[in-house]
Amino acid sequence: MAGNKVICHCCNVDYVTIRKEMINGARTLDEIEESTGAGLGCGACTEEIEKVLSSVCGCRSVSLETVVNAVKNGADTVEKVGEVTGAGTACGKCKSLINNVIEIKK
């Protein structure tokens, strides 16, 4: 997802804010709602929030599930995850999130 667009207009929560919460360990809609308020207004943004939550690397179209599976299968560094999945090998903006997945293994 390119740029920093507002995802939740009711609470003025943007894409970068959601990604920062993911880097801090948020993995579910409930956790994003609790930490940002996004999704608690009209609810029209919940599908978009779920899309953000499911993706780690937009450049290579790598899902969170793919990265988690790579970590569970032994990829214990950002570089190893990149070798297995391609995540983090283009622009690198997702490396902090990949590192968090490695740290908390989810």
Summarize this structure briefly:
50% of the residues lie in helices and 9% in strands.
Structure description:
Helix 1 (15-23) runs parallel beside helix 6. The chain has helices at residues 15-23, 29-36, 46-54, 64-72, 78-85, 95-104, and strands at 6-8, 13-14, 55-57, 62-63. The mean pLDDT is 95. The protein has 106 residues and is mainly alpha-helical. It is elongated and about 40 Å long. The strands form two sheets. It has a two-stranded antiparallel ribbon. Strands 3-4 form a two-stranded antiparallel ribbon. A hairpin with a 4-residue loop joins strand 3 (55-57) and strand 4 (62-63).
Strand order of the largest sheet: 1-2
Percent helix, as a range, is 40-55%
* Chain-averaged pLDDT: 95
Assembly classification: single chain
Gyration radius from CA atoms, angstroms: 14 Å
Percent strand: 5-15%
Number of strands: 4
Number of separate helices = 6
Shape: elongated
**Distance between the ends:** 21 Å
Query: What is the helix/strand order?
Result: EEHHHEEHHH
- Helix vs. strand class: mainly alpha
Q: Uncertain spans, ≥5 residues at pLDDT below 50?
A: none
| Largest sheet features | 2 strands, antiparallel
Secondary-structure topology with pairs:
Blueprint: E1 6-8, E2 13-14, H1 15-23, H2 29-36, H3 46-54, E3 55-57, E4 62-63, H4 64-72, H5 78-85, H6 95-104
Antiparallel strand pairs: 1-2, 3-4
Main attributes of the structure:
106 residues; mainly alpha; two-stranded antiparallel sheet; 6 helices; 9% strand; elongated
